[in-house]
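As a warm-up, study this chain.
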Amino acid sequence: MDPENKYELIRLENQICFPLYACAKEVVRQYREPLEALGLTYTQYVVMMALWEFGGMSEKELGEKVFLDSGTLAPLLKRLEKQGYLTRVRLEEDERVLIISLTKEGRALKEKAVSVPGAMKGCIDLSDGELWELKQLLDKALSKMRR
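Now compare it with the structure written out below.
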């Protein structure tokens, strides 16, 4: 390798990971305002979306769906439980399994949450086609990384 170019691979501008990281961070920042009306952080919102879509499930299943480990998910679920949005109940037949279920208040929050995607429209200044293409590429990359 040419000694003058040996550091080319570690230049920030040549990284794929950095713009992904920076975009993700900026998108989460943009979500802050619309989610304040719901009393949720972005990560809590993602967890609630999974529960609204799939219903009650174990903490492990939920973590797999939203890509969060137990160390991150457990305190987040405790906070959502304190807010009255969900319950956490251990299975009698296997106390290692924690079942997460929405409360009436948690299900009702879904009605308020339908306004969030509209509030986020235009957050990323790309055409609908470009956004769809970006989502498909990110889904594909994520799928290949999970194998």
